[in-house]
Design goal:
The structure holds 2 protein chains of 2 kinds.
Chain A lengths: L2 H12 L12 H7 L3 H24 L9 H23 L1 H11 L6 H11 L4 H31 L1 E2 L3 H5 L8 E2 L8 H4 L1 H36 L1
Antiparallel strand pairs in A: 1-2
Chain B lengths: L1 H9 L1 H4 L12 H13 L3 H45 L14 E5 L3 E10 L2 E12 L4 E9 L4 E8 L51 H19 L1 H7 L3
Antiparallel strand pairs in B: 1-2, 2-3, 3-4, 4-5
The chains are: A mainly alpha, B alpha+beta.
């Protein structure tokens, strides 16, 4: 397995097989928590950590997992990892836990975590599984940050509010007020707003993919003509 | 299982590696273990035992994790409570440490209630209660400070697991909703007003979240009624 193939696991997960935009998985946490860009970032990073750890563990024990009982076994591992992270964060990253704590337990029910365990980690060695987890997690993260950012700007007129609580004081510069004295469109913060923004993102990705394919076909066509 | 299946089909990179990783001939022991596991996997005894073993292992790890983090979490929560206590209790009302003087009072409806008495020069000036009611997603832990005249000095949320973005406006860092209770008492607010507007009361619910404010109003009323019911015992027990 060459290095090119290895990095492909990571990069393809960011766009081509994006958890939220292509596989359409994990939409429950994606839509529920993305009322602000900071929430999206926190949820995304926590999910990434969980994905990398569960992928690594399940990949390492993949030969011992019998297909008949694979689901309860994987759920057991995932729930254990998430609960441990929850406890450790509560104890030693208490300030961050106060922001993120609500979301951590939700990760157990994130079907993307079970989905990657099932479709990737049970069939691949540890290193590709970790890379896959990192790519899938970060692919999920950027979608959450964009949905959260759009909803936050439309709903409250701010961007990355409370980011310093999540990332530390050094990141206070991230917090900005995009539209001052803005009452906000309540719809954007409510659940329908999440669906609407997700719809636009899905459409946007399709358009970009089509444009890229057209350009590729065009340059390919020109090459044929030149020959 | 349809979700998982569709994941499979939409991810060519998982299909490409569907067969078990080829084993290098040098690792003889590894190959033998894998071959043995291959034999074992279809057996129902192995399946039950492996599932049991994983559950036992996870449970054990959680026990270890819990015992390692428990003390630290309690400390952090105590520090949180001290910060909240300073928000609900005006500094001029007490010269003791209410957290240290905490006591439990038995009550027929609420069970055991944790009470933090605030004293100034040995005289009881206010009482802080810890009350908890089930919200939309589990218990909402709340501190309520009541003056000796039965007025609410302040109330804050200690911990909750309500929906982020909708119901977390009960936190003072996100909205000042929780301050509507300040100054209210059973005397100056008739009983029918102690409910959210949807239920005919006077307190705003949030768009998309009614159950959460309802639980908080309930906690506040419970604390007020508790104080009225236990007034005698409180004034006796609280004596230094």
């Amino acid at each position: 397995m060459s290095d090119v193939r290895l990095s492909k696991y990571f990069t393809s997960a960011l766009w081509d097989y994006n958890v939220a935009l292509v596989q359409m998985l994990a939409l429950c946490p994606a839509l529920a928590v993305t009322t602000s860009a900071t929430n999206g970032l926190g949820m995304g990073l926590a999910t990434t950590l969980v994905l990398m750890m569960t992928n690594a563990i399940i990949s390492a024990m993949r030969h011992t997992i019998s297909p008949a009982v694979r689901n309860p076994m994987m759920i057991g591992v995932i729930a254990g990892v998430v609960t441990l992270i929850d406890m450790v964060m509560n104890a030693w990253m208490h300030e961050m836990y106060k922001v993120l704590g609500l979301f951590i337990a939700l990760i157990v029910t994130n079907c993307a975590v079970l989905g990657r365990a099932e479709s990737f980690s049970t069939k691949n060695p540890v290193l590709p599984s970790v890379l896959d987890g990192a790519g899938m997690g970060l692919g999920f993260t950027w979608v959450l940050v964009i949905i959260g950012g759009i909803r936050e700007i439309l709903g409250s007129g701010t961007l990355f509010a409370q980011a310093s609580l999540l990332l530390g004081e050094h990141f206070r510069w991230l917090e900005m007020t995009v539209i001052p004295d803005f009452q906000g469109i309540l719809l954007a913060i409510l659940p329908p707003g999440a669906f609407i923004v997700l719809g636009f993102l899905l459409a946007g990705k399709r358009i970009i993919d089509r444009k890229v394919a057209e350009r590729r076909a065009k340059t390919h066509g020109e090459l044929v003509v030149l020959q | 299982m349809t979700e998982m299946d569709s994941t499979n089909s939409s991810c060519p990179n998982s299909g490409a590696n569907a067969t078990p990783a080829p084993v290098a001939p040098s690792s003889g022991l590894k190959a033998r273990i894998e071959a043995r596991l291959e034999e074992l996997r279809p057996k129902i005894e192995y399946q039950g035992a492996s599932l049991g073993a994983i559950c036992a292992l996870v449970a054990f790890l959680l026990l270890v994790g819990n015992s390692l983090t428990k003390g630290q979490i309690e400390q952090e929560q105590l520090a949180d409570r001290l910060v909240v206590l300073r928000q609900v209790l005006p500094a001029e009302l007490y010269d003791n440490n209410p957290l240290v003087d905490a006591m439990k009072i038995k009550d027929e409806t609420l069970g055991e209630v944790e009470v933090y008495p605030a004293r100034k020069a040995g005289k009881l000036t206010a009482i802080v209660f810890r009350v908890s009611n089930i919200g939309y997603a589990g218990p909402i832990d709340q501190l309520i400070a009541l003056g000796s005249n039965g007025q609410i000095l302040g109330t804050r949320i200690l911990a909750h697991k309500e929906t982020p973005g909708l119901a977390d406006k009960i936190e003072i860092s996100r909205s000042d909703w929780i301050t509507v209770f300040n100054g209210l008492s059973l005397e100056n607010t008739p009983m029918k007003d102690w409910a959210v507007k949807k239920d005919g009361g006077r307190f705003d619910q949030f768009a998309g979240a009614t159950i959460t404010p309802r639980a908080i109003v309930k906690s506040v009323v419970q604390a007020l009624q508790f104080q009225a019911r236990q007034a005698k015992q409180l004034s006796e027990e609280v004596k230094p």
